[in-house]
Specification:
The chain is mainly α. It has one domain. Helix content is 70%, strand content 0%. It has 4 helices and no strands. α1 runs antiparallel to α2, α1 crosses α4 and α2 packs across α4. The protein starts with a helix and ends in a 14-residue tail after the last helix. The model has no long low-confidence stretch (mean pLDDT 84).
Length: 117
């Protein structure tokens, strides 16, 4: 059962990353390229949250139920849990995307400082 919880959590993290990446690619690009839309770029986080909630309902991603399963408690899947999980997916994706973008990039140039001769 524990493996199933970790596997589901991994899928949720991947889904969160995909939501953020695709929202940035599909919706973020026009907000950057079209000057009239630039002041409204703040709305992208709500687009990501909406997609996260929609995805949580479609795939039944309830983090509270998942946590209950992990600790051995019986917590049913609820609309509240799905909405809360979807909000976390939409918002958490931003943090996950920033983490991957910052720390999991291929280094450019010389990674090692030159040694004194």
């Amino acid at each position: 059962m524990e493996l199933s919880v970790w596997a589901t959590l991994a899928v949720i993290f991947l889904f969160a990353f995909l939501v953020e990446s695709l929202v940035e690619y599909v919706a973020g690009t026009p907000f950057e390229k079209i000057p009239a839309l630039t002041p409204y770029k703040w709305a992208l986080m709500y687009v990501a949250m909406g997609i996260g909630v929609l995805g949580a309902f479609i795939y039944k991603f309830d983090l509270l139920t998942l946590l209950g399963t992990f600790v051995g408690a019986s917590i049913p899947v609820t609309s509240f849990g799905l909405i809360l999980s979807g909000c976390a997916i939409g918002r958490g994706a931003n943090y996950l995307h920033d983490l991957v973008k910052t720390y999991f990039v291929k280094p450019t140039g010389n990674v090692f400082p030159s040694e004194p001769e």
